[in-house]
Structures are given as structure tokens and as C-alpha cells.
Amino acid sequence: MIATVRKLSEFFNNSPKRQQHLVKNIKELLPNNNHEVLINVCRTRWVARIDGMDRIVEMLLPVASALEDISLNRDENGDRGRGDWNVDSRNDAQSLLNAITFTFIVAIVVVRHILDLTRPLTLKLQRKEIDLLKAKDEIALLKHALADMQRNIDVRHHQLYVEAVELAASIGVQPSMPRVAVRQVHRANAPAADPEVYYRINLTRVFLDHCTQHIDRRFQNEVYSCYKGLYLVPKVMLSNAAVWKARVREFCNDYRQDIPNIAGLDGEFALWERMWRDQQNVRADPIPDRVSDTLAEVDKHAFCNIYTILQLLATLPMSSASSERSFSTLKYLKTYLRNTMGQERLNGLALMYVHRDKNMDIEQLIDLFAQMHPRRIRMANILHDDGV
């Protein structure tokens, strides 16, 4: 199903002519629609997968109409066999049109609905400044929503099935189900009396159980215990004055064998909080909000326990890697039309794009560039007659 969605988006996005024909069908069939481009289901960003399936469900009618026009080689007047589509486009369009079956429609409606429940949590966890502790409420809310859907699977699936039937009817696809064979190893094969029961047993229930199991395995209670030590960071500590000691104490209980002086934690906690509260009023620089910045300022002899806790936090695996954003940047900077770009210029443009929030003095950069690369010929000012 995901592969079909990706092929549909690539089929139109990789050809301006096909995309223009899709836009024409969207304006005719969905005049109030605000979207005109299909979203490719990205393999790394989960939100892009959700958006891609939402866009397919929203624009399935004009997409199917555009594929039919291309496969039948229709012209602008709708005359069959008189268009200017090449053979490869017609064959690819027919192949994609054959892939839009009732099974595909039911699958994308069900999967899209379940993944839409994960959108708030996904957006929070894919931010640059990720905080798993703040996302704990969204994780609990998602687990409750999936559990509620499992308890009311008959009613919820019926609603999704009706939506799939209406969507299939808009493009002329009749409800059906795959043939139930005696032996089947490549797909679910539970027998059912009608298509609705078949997809409830073999699709909705299976995918819902799969999502629930993965979320329970990824977000276990031990994960929160590891990250509770982040409350020791000064900025987090000052904003959570009522609970930070209890949270860090839970972290220390899990790493008791690594703490050098477990009995002296209360004294260090009291001095640590007082020190940063005093510095908050007189300090010119901002209070540290990261483990690395806090490690650079902590006195490891006076706060041996806190220093050890910060070292343990520094060894925990990160859930968000900013370096991966450079791969997305390269797609915008170096394309097939700009493939002759040199390495020095590419590095410069990539740094400017990634760190575009930095405030830079343009005049100072121009003066620095002029000093590093002096011109042999003095540039004339064309606005004056004397060229000065």
C-alpha cells in the first residue's frame, strides 16, 4: 500500500506535464480543494507518511481521473486515442490505475485513520528540541485512544468501512475481498462471510494490534526513568521546583551503583538549587538548558554526585539527530539542474541554509570576501560618468 502511494506521488511530481493535467482535474472535480500536489511518503519522517496518505484520500477522485485520461490517451476535449501521451506514461498510468483496488482503498482509509491518532505525538517527538518527559501525556493519551478503538472495534471499523465504500464508489470501484485460499502465506487468510467482516479481521484488527504492541515496547516505564535525570539541568530544575528532586531521586535509584555518595544527595540537591537560583538573578548569560552546557560549568569536586549524574545523562542515546537535516538540505541545493556545483560553494550554501537563524552582518561579510579575494581590476561604478 505504501509503495503504491509512493509511486502515485512520483508519477505526477516527476513530470510537469502530468502534474498540470492533475491540477486541471482537481479544479474541475474538486473546485473547493486547496491542495494540488501529492506528498511523497518519506522513509525517514513519519509525519510525511501520514500527510501523504491523507492527501491521497483527499484527492483520489482527480488522481484516478487523471490516470484514466493518460492511460486512454485522451486529449483536452476528452477524445480517446487523440492525446499526446507517450507509451511509457500510458503504461505506467494503467498499472497504477489497476493498483487502486478496493483492498487498497480500505487499507489506506484504515491505516490513515490509525496513524492520524499518532500525529500529535509524532510532531512532538520529531521536533529539534525533543523532550520525552513532556511527551509522556501524549503517549498515555495515544495508548488510551488505541485501547478504546480495540474495545469498540466493530463500531469503529464499520465507520471506516462505510467511508471506504463511499470513496470507492466515487471512482467506480465495487466492494470486494480477496479470494480465501486453502493455504495462504503472503497475506491474511481468515475466512469471512462478507467484505466488511473480512477487512475487520484481516486488516483493521491486525494493524491496530501491531501499532499497540510497538508503542508499548518503545515507550516502557524504564525509558522515562532514564530521562528523569534531565530535571537536574538548571533551566528544567527551576521551572519544575516542586517535582525535580523526586524525579532525580528515581533516576538515582536505577543507577545506585554508579553514584559515588548516595547518602549525600539531599545536601547536594539543596546547594545546587540555591546556587542556580542566586545566579538566575545576577547572571548575564542564560541559564544552561542542556546537559553539555551544565557539565561545562559544574564543579566536579564540590558536586561529585551531580557531576556523575550529568555524565550518565550524556551517555544516553539521543532521539533526535540534527545532522540528519543536512540530507534534506542537499535535495534543495544540489539538483540535476545544478549538479556542477563545486564542493566549496555547496558547503557554504548548506551552512547558510541549516543555520539560517543566525544574524549575520552582510556588509562585514562583503568586506571579508573582498579582503580574501582582491580583484585585479578595479570595479567601475556604472552610475557615475567618471566610473568612481
Automatic annotation (TrEMBL):
Transmembrane intervals: 96-115
Coiled-coil stretches: 125-152
HAT C-terminal dimerisation domain mapped to chain residues: 301-356
One of the Pfam families matching this protein, by short name: Dimer_Tnp_hAT
Record's keyword terms, sorted: Coiled coil, Membrane, Transmembrane, Transmembrane helix
Tree of life domain: Eukaryota
PANTHER family reported in the protein's UniProt record: 52 KDA REPRESSOR OF THE INHIBITOR OF THE PROTEIN KINASE-LIKE PROTEIN-RELATED, DUF4371 DOMAIN-CONTAINING PROTEIN
Name of the protein this chain belongs to: HAT C-terminal dimerisation domain-containing protein
Organism encoding this protein: Porites lobata
